[in-house]
Batch of 3 targets.
Target 1
Amino acid sequence: MTTETRTPETQPLRRTLPRIPDRFAAFGAVLIVVVVLAAVLAPWLAPYPVDDPRPLERLLPPSGAHWFGTDQVGRDVLTRILYGGRTSLFIAVAVLAVSALAGVTLGVVAGYAGGWIRDVIMRVTDVFLAFPALLLSLALAVVLQPGVNTVILAIAVTWWPWYTRLAASMAASIATRPYVDAARCLGVPAPLIILRHVLPNSLTPVLVQLSLDAGGVILTSAALSYLGLGAQEPTAEWGLMVQQGQTLFTTNWWVVTFPGLAILVTAFAFNVLGEGLRNALDPRRAVK
Amino acid sequence: MTMLRAELRADRVTLGYGRRPVVHDVSIDITEGGVGLIGESGSGKTTLARAFLGLLSPISGNIWYGDQTLKKADMRKFRRDVQPVFQAEALDPRMRVGTSIAEALPRAARSRVPDLLEQVGLDPELAGRRPHELSGGQRQRVVIARALAVGPRLLILDEPTSALDVTVQARVLDLLASLDTERLLITHNLAVVERLCRTSHVLFAGRVVESGPTADLLANPAHPYTRALRDAVPKLGGDPPEAKGRTEAVPAATGCPFRLRCPLAVAACEQAPEPRDVQGRQVACHRAEDVLT
Amino acid sequence: MSDHLIEARDLRVSYGGRVVAEVPRLDVGAGECVAIVGESGSGKSTTLLSLLGLTQNAEISGQVRVCGVDVLTASPRALRELRGARAALVMQSPHAALSPATRLGVLMRRALKLHGVRDVDRTMARAMEEVLLDRELLRRYPHEVSGGQAQRFAIALAIALGAEVILADEPTSALDVTVQAEVVGVLRRLRAERDLALLLVSHDLALVSTIADRVLVMKDGAVVESGPAATVLAEPSHPYTRELLEALP
């Protein structure tokens, strides 16, 4: 039997699609590895103790002794950034793990099942989306102790519905694919269909979204820290550093600029990685 | 043979999504020798196929499976007996095709995958490939192998070859014709119906407008729509196909749905025609006699 | 200088050294219809796109003249003018070529103004009439028209802009047969009335046999047979052409 494999006519066309080169994605991945390593190895890398205010060395500009300068109470900014990465990354990972797990589970069920099951899940989702995120977090903080765990809970509570929506719309479209109908006609039970066909084929945008969201979570946790609901002094956290340093921007730019850059670089790296994932996870592109 | 009731049949089913019906009051028996369901886009043919597969419940009427309606039937047995063959895209893009084929097989029977692949004319080695690593014709054969895995007695074929190149299409049709199962074939392609189905039904706007032996139907249509369809198919070296009537005219909401496109429409067509017996077939047209001459 | 509107010699299109289409000779004169037939992967669409300089990242050699413009050496600007007005491309998926948020009338008016067509209203009305479309359609958005209507609109746009050549890539394969008949009817009439040159890429030999004067049969990037449609399809000399014909249902 002759095997015409992939047609030369479609291949060149695919090549014309705008594509982020793989090298770029690899660069993002390397950046993330660097950021994660820096955070994990902070106790060994940091030139100074994390909480060591020296009133006489307040607001020193960057120099050989303090590469990124010192802050308003005389702590080394580089040290604070290295340690702050631990807090910020932990918050991001925790929030996204909780949101994705809850959101995607509910989403694929809603999207596949349709009907009243979908209606119930999506209405609950809408209720959560209707609450202003900060208000809900404030309420939570009143009940709970402010701190990193509260931040995680507060952000996750307002974050998961987006994953539900994303997963539900993906799953609903997957559920109409002929291969899902074929599985149903073979008598495969619904939970297995969801697990084998709907979930894996809905995941790509979720993974991409996760990478793209990492930066957003870090920024949101910064906002909560500012309101006194998040990480508390003396915990080092990027958002907290930016918020505390922002009034000093015109006079002592380094206090806010370096933690800001840390957030930017990390968010950017996750973004690039997200794009790379999108390409790599597409089975039609993986074979090239 | 024809004395027996068909194993699977639609009895005055009206089908739709939400409230709006797209198939109206259709009765079709899946008899021996292959049954064709001919229609263009929007005719409701795929909706009917989904109902026959138990994927869509009728708004009214029933799908009968033996002497039970599908609502009450033993679905485990039904799922073994009746299998779909959709277009080649009906494979999970992430799943190796061997896994797809084995999906519904009990663990002990998974060793049959190579045999199934051979049965549809594929190299058993291909089991480890993913769908995008196969050609369109190979994918279509995998879809057929998956359907055959559970040993069905009836295949519901929904446009099984329309996405394929002609030479590949011819070979897949040979394969389908050689299979030892009953079949309901849904297509817009008259030549494919001629090849695989003894009986055919022509659907227009969710209604059966003409039913009968396929050969008679195509040689000598009794409904103006069947005739328009047949005449529109280009023939090798023949005259250019001619469009009769305005194809963009939407199906009429009352009376004969085809009347706004029909070159023979008369005042009487504002009354919906009941299907009636004309020269050995069922035709829903007031002017069937004029079409036949 | 010949009077062919499309003229290609020793055309060879390759991607990264791999030749995907090789056409030694292709001529389409005014009022003529030439068809390239073949299966997927034969290089037929690539050939058509290369004639308008629309293949990206491809290495093309040979000579191509369309409406007198040397496509392979022309400036991007000259190519845009050629594609915009004198040589029109009609694609398989008619809706893909229409911007979803623009009414058809607005789209056509803009295109005509861009190309300095005078008497826009009359030109539009006449073009719509020629493809048998109701003028009311101009008020609609692309999603509000059927595939056959969108395809005829694409043809109307081409003739309103004064196209002398229409290059059509599977223009009817996404359409129902009854609708296909209508679109083909429009193309045939325009060809006769306006002396349009028509280059048709299709997998459907039966369809091609009813409309084309000459046929090129392509397989795996090469032209295996060419000649008058009647001869090639009635007495094919190449085994592949025979195989194609025998496969016809």
Note: The interface with chain B takes residues 1, 3-6, 177-179, 181-188, 196-197, 200-201, 283-284, 287 of chain A (CB under 8 Å).
Target 2
Amino acid sequence: MLKYLFAKNEDIPSGSAAVFFGFSSIVWFVIGTGLGSFNAAKLAFPDFVTGNEFFAFGHMRQVHVMAVIFGWISMAFAMAMMYITPALGNNKLWSEKLGLWNCMLWNLGLTLGLTILWAGVTSGREYSDFPWPIDLYLATCVFIPLGVNVWMTILNRRTQGIYTTNWFFAAATFMVIIVFLVGNLPEFFHLTGLTEAYLTWWFAHNVLGLWITPVAAAIAYYTIPKVTGNPLYSHRIGHLHFWSVVVFYSTPAAHHLMSAPLPEWLKSFASVEGVLILVPAIAFVSNIMLTMQGKWYMFVENIEVRFTITGCLMAIPLNMQGGFQQTRAINWYIHGTGWIVAHAHLALLGFSTFLEAAAVYFGLQSILKRKLYSITLANLHFWLLLIGFTVYWVSMTIAGLIQGAGKIYEVPYIDVVIAEHPYMIARWLGGTMVFSGNVMWLYNMWMTARKGTVVPQGRMPHELAYER
Amino acid sequence: MAGFREYKIGSKLFGIALGGSMTITLFFPSINIASVSSSEIALTKQLAIGHETGFNLDDPLLLGKNKPIGVALKADPKSGQPLEGGMMVYVYQPGTSFPAGILHTRILGAGVEELSVQQGHVTDARKDSGAVFTVNKGTYEGKQYSYIENLTATKGWTPADVIRVAKDEDLSNAGKGKTMFVREGCWWCHTLLPEETQDWQVFGAPPMLGDFNGESPTAFGSDRKAPDLLHVGSRNSSREWMMMHFFNPRLVQPHSIMPRFDYLWGEKDAAGQKIDYAKWRAEYDEYREGKRVSPPDVPSYASDSEIRGLIDFMLSLK
């Protein structure tokens, strides 16, 4: 990487930025899930590594969250953007050099941010935990360069129209910059009180709704047609998806604070808009499922399709939960319980991660022009992720329902803690499976780059997956 | 360059959609929230906690610096006359940043702002010389409000006057404690937001609209793995219990999954002796294995320790 940073843009091979982003994202995924597994162990066994502030749960919980969101998920997005945007514009990435610098600054900034967060230097605001200098760094050195590269690649495209995936990429990179700059206003200008509380959740909601969800979906709009060879079922449903994300997903921030003393009209409005998130969700899932017509055998045979479709199928329970759990009728029961933790992992580890993993698998193989080193390890990775996640999700959902019942029926709190204990152990086991799967993935992709069979010109790696 | 020529309408609609969404979700709520008058709770919290308890340039490592000291006064610090029922005042030593409501009185809200400026003289307070504040009650245009009074201006009590007469047990480092609460991530498990369900019967009344003016961060918490703490000081006001619970929660609650916060005691105990953590843990392990009848004693904390602040903050959550 270092030799390319000061090379001429023309001398840098196409796809370099995507490869570095791809490997960075996998490394952050290993780190992030490792921290998750460690944190889960502490919730199951509180005296596991104790009495040291650097291994205290309260210092590490946010590091896990930020590592997976801004390390794994967002860098996998950047990886996808670096190779999908030019592929769909029939051109080259606007600047590989900018992409490589972006990747380096991203890794440096995130490492610095997570280190000081780990030391306890925090804004005390969930999901915008980074102190404001780090937020400014992320906006200016991470998201703005990423956006510039994506927008310029799209503007310089050699196709007439813009494909669905690229609408989402262009809009989401723009929206995430706005979300970063507006959502952190309380830190930049010391806004206080309910304004601070509300903007915290405005940021948290919109970074998920206007960045993670649409970009993950956009990746599936590329992966499924590309790998199956079927055209996208409907561009019009794609339009519906895009516009309903912008209109409905950007407004329900207040539904995260249904039990806080915010203006009642705001909570009711947010709640209605929250149900309307089902519009983009149903549009997306049906569009992808219908694109699969005639190619369902690939769900079994092909690793990228299997990851993507599993992720899309997980979007169904995800959005059914998401649409309704934030209404007053249900929120009073499950608010603040493990149910929400399970839901958040369904969104980020279930739905989103599976789509990005497919993009990273597919991208690294096609850019490096090498077949996957081991399809067995890839299968093992898939099943460890799926089973590990399912164990996690089921145990946390049950724990959440126990907490909800404890809350409503006024059970002494310690009895809830005792009742949750077995589910905390199950969650740790599930999380550890995910972590071990990712370690195998890192090894597999590293060996693919080093020793994978070279794919001949004009062939796609997945076509040769089962050939020797 | 192909540009967006086919997408002129789309680009404009995108701007309208996102702008409309921002107007509804940011501009309209800000009108409502900005018009709320501070309650007595909000004023007390602001004065007790000070300027900011998340990352800030005055205390970048979140060590609990730049914080006010709460003092339970029993007598007038100048004349020595006893004060009936006592009085809670908040001492801002010279150089300590004032809370948001004193720097920008507008955020105190209608009524409270006028009273605090006109009768409380809060705008006369100066950071270089410090000030002493309290919460008082008054009437503005026929309505009752609590407001902030700058005692340095109204009664001539300086920070030095108040600190001179206060004994250690009258002092509260709740502001430092809130910084510890944020830094140590207490709010990852303990919420500060009883919900409007049966919650209020166990954890107390949910907060009201005006209870947060000037507070930052609010640290409501979202993932409740442990009891709500908004009114914990009313349920349990024992310093000894808090001490044991923070040092090792399993001393008072065998099933607790809370981490040990013994490291907040720092190097030395109340008597200035070095705390031998290794010895304590070894003895505690013997107790757990049944080789000792009772667990070792929890060291008493130094008055400038981080745990002192955190316990003061817990006890201030009434």
Note: The mean pLDDT of chain A is 96.
Target 3
Amino acid sequence: MEYFVANNIHKEYGTTKALDDVSISVREGSIFGLLGPNGAGKTTLIRIINQITAPDKGEVFLGGHRMKESDVSKIGYLPEERGLYKKMKIGEQALYLAQLKGLSRRDALKSLKYWFEKFEIVSWWDKKVEELSKGMQQKVQFIATVVHNPSLLIFDEPFSGFDPINANLIKQEILELKDKGATIIFSTHNMGTVEDLCDHIALINKSRKILDGPVYEVKEQYKSNIFEVSYRGDYNKIQSMLDSSFVILEHKENSRENTIRVQQNESGESNELLRILTGTSDIVSFREVIPSMNDVFIKAVEMYNGTKK
Amino acid sequence: MNKTLIILKREYLTRVAKKSFIVTTLLVPIFMIGLMVVPAWLASRDDKQERTIAVYDESTLFMGQLDQEGYTKYQFIDQNTYGTLKESLASNSEFYALLYIPANIYTNSQAQLSSPKQVPFELAEEIERKLSQIIETDKRQKVIESAGVPDLESQLAATRTKVSVNTLKVTETGEERKSSSMVAFITSYGMGFIIYFFVFMYGSLVMRSVMEEKKNRIVEVIISSVKPFQLMAGKILGTALVGLTQVAIWIILIVAGLTITKTMLSPESAQEMGKSIMESQAQMGPMQPNMSEAQNQIAEVIEMIGNLNIPLIIFGFIFYFLGGYLLYSSLMGAVGAAVDNDEDSQQLVFPVTFPLILSIILLFSISRNPEGSVAFWASIIPFTSPICMLARIPYGVPAWELLLSMSLLIVTLIGVIWVAAKIYRTGILMYGKKVNLKELYKWLTYKG
């Protein structure tokens, strides 16, 4: 079931288009990757979801209903540019932010106790933000994002500023929140974490959505009939066997086995390559090369910008 | 709890708990008292320096007539001594100064006092007074002699008259009330300044607080929970409460201070004072009318204060105080949101605070002519009216002018808050852009 839906969102600042007819839908309990180059319009879309700004045109739904003002208490948002009051004590600050999300003082204290204990930072309660390192502040900010137990979470570059150990801790927390049923929108430039975490992605470029779908489908869509074959045998023999419908992109030889990357033109079937090769050499492995999210991102954006020119 | 209230509470509590708040709240009254007491105390100390002044009297009119007075002595010298002394005055330790009275002083009324030091104002004045008196007495003597009227002196003395004009304020019912321009002047000036300082001080506080949130980047987290308008309203109202707390503490301190001084004075000093007054009254009868005259004057001032329209003044004060504060603090909040750093804020703050500064400049001319056209326009135009109309109220203002001024202020306030909220909402999320008035105008056209 879709938990969050945005339909045909348009947004302009003066004469600058920030979003042009963008629609996304996020399945309940999934992690949705919102990707795009800098300045593409991701932040604007996130701000519309948070009701920080309103769209010029288009509709936003949460849990099957049109989003209303009180829905902000169901959303937890960790912005990319984030900060805290420097002179305020950590505990008071977290309490303040939790109360602004609509929690009563008592519920806020209870929830904060849980999270402070979980992150082992209870002793920081009376410290001021200026006494903490950046990574420590990020933890407090993460807590402030999840303290009110939101059903929709929006993380914008959540791992920036964390060391690998804490980044992993946060990653585990995000996955745990997902298991508990939270729906998560996740924006990052780190394609590795997208492959690790996301179920579904949308790619926004120059204020338009140019790609949308489950991660595996998107990758599937961008594969280009490239096969990687490891074999024991003579490279020249293979080369002579392959006709013009195949292009050898790369070949590597070492003492135990050779590896080639072959691109087949669109019309062919993968079995055909395998059939040709089995007659010529001893095949160790054969697999189709699936592009990484990084490749998909670059290819999609370059293709779009190319056709625009 | 309402979110605006949560924000208001935080703004209030963090500010009131700050050391700087406690320090200024306690130090400002001490500083003010110091400002009034120290000069008075310094002035009350007599000038005890002994000075000898050499007098060369070319006119020979004043020989033996300049007596020692207080710590100043006069010593007459002849022409030769004058010549040498004039050259060596700087190295001479015997004389403090040299007074040269020319031969034609009778007609010219000019003398000359030279000294290597800066002559105190009082000393120069004392000498002026002495010389004038002597010449005047001499002239009068001559007139009396030539007139040939025996008791002319006392007859002339009897002609001396002093008329005092009591200002009366006629109300619409024809009733006459004693008014005092002085009392009205002080009231209007005082209130004008209080509003000016409060708006300036706490308006800047709002601005700095907005800038801090923008700089910290906490603002995006907050406005994902509350509307920017709620954040701004909570901030402005919370800061206003901080200001009111400060004023309340000052009033309590003043009242407490007065009570303490009163009780400290009353047991002994007051009795003693009373005794000495009674003694002096018994000794010299003529003192009595003077005493009752002073009492009358005090009673009169009290009556004049009572005749000011106090309920209207209090209402006007609260109305224009709130109106002025809301008007300027929302604009300054918008400025704080629009800029990235302090330097840029200076540039935008000036156009915002200019009418406020102008009001204070106009205040003096309004006090002098509260019915004039400057006073009229300044008290109708909403950006200057909080200070200027308030300054006119103690003198009495036609009801329609007051109503016009108040309704214009309310309408403008609504418009200004709308504009400020738009600028604020766009500005707090805008970084790295140099903002000018044209850019701000563009923001007003942004939707949502």
Note: Confidence is low (pLDDT under 50) at residues 284-289 of chain B.
